[in-house]
Amino acid sequence: MKQTVRVAGGQGFWGDLLTAPVDQVRKGPIDYLMLDYLAEVTMSILQKQRSRNPEAGYARDFVELMREILPDCVEKNIKVLSNAGGVNVTGCAEAIANVARELGLQGKVKIGVVTGDDVLDRLDQFIADGVEINSMDDGTPLSAIRDKVQSANVYLGAEALVEALGKGANIIVGGRLTDTGLTLAPLMHEFGWSFDDWDKVSAGTIAGHIIECGAQSSGGNCQYDWQNIPDMANIGFPIVEASPNGEFIVTKHSGTGGRVNIQSVKEQLLYEMGDPHEYITPDVVADFASINLEPAGENRVRVHGITGHPKTDFYKVSIAYTGGYKAVGTLVYSWPDAYEKAQAADKILRERLKNLGLEFEVILTEYVGVNATHGHLAMAGPGRGRLEGTARRLRSGF
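RESULT FIELD:
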């Protein structure tokens, strides 16, 4: 058994810093690279893409990234876990396999595919069987919005990932795998943790939570002393160095920008936090109130003492549905009296919409900054180029 396993966070969302996973692989030692591409809205975007093109529906950035780093990963025995498969996991895995062949790495890359999260085609059967799927916000039943649903995906945890690692996969692609499970699974696989060792599973889950959002825990979202965090343009993404007993160090590669300290880790721990005693995942109910943090050297924070509780009997489902439309328009007014002109235009447009008999759920007007049109000339001197613009956001009712 390894005494230390290093899991690096390389992607916090689809569209995150493209060089970050490359740096994680090349700027220091790691054992695993976890890549989280999926926000809730991303699933609906990918589903729309696939409805137009059956071969789409996954994060294509991931394929080009693997073209860049796959030789490094094979050479250094770095395993990659990702939910980049979106709503077309098989298509994504096939694209990676094609890349491996193009690079002459066939036989050296074993791709694990995790499916089963996409339940869009099963919703009607769930309703017929009396399975309750209600909004976590207001309790609205699925049946009330069923005809508008665009995507439906169950959050899957670490179990299938651990199985894939046990079968020798060194690249794993899935759909709506949880952010935390992508980090937890390598630790369970390497250390042989039991799925009902709730304290250790909770520790691995919290480790995943800390590094799931790109550079947020390494200074990118830290409000404390943010003006003095060094070299943010070259910020290093976070890494956890985990031990078999469930303790771990949060750090980053040396020579990279940003900062890892107790403040940066604390702020990430609070991200998307509800009841700190009940952070619910498919694998465990983690107790964030049990976390202990202490400095462990420059850009190193020790995390220990974590406890957890048995997982729930249910899965969470992310369902996206069509709720209306939004239209955005911009009108620009320059000095003199730019702000007053923009206010007058807003009043005129609202009256015109009313005269047309159009009804909107929300009408929002924003007045945008001093250099929105003339750039650097706007700041040339008093009375020269100062302006205000107006932006309108309109959305129809349901």
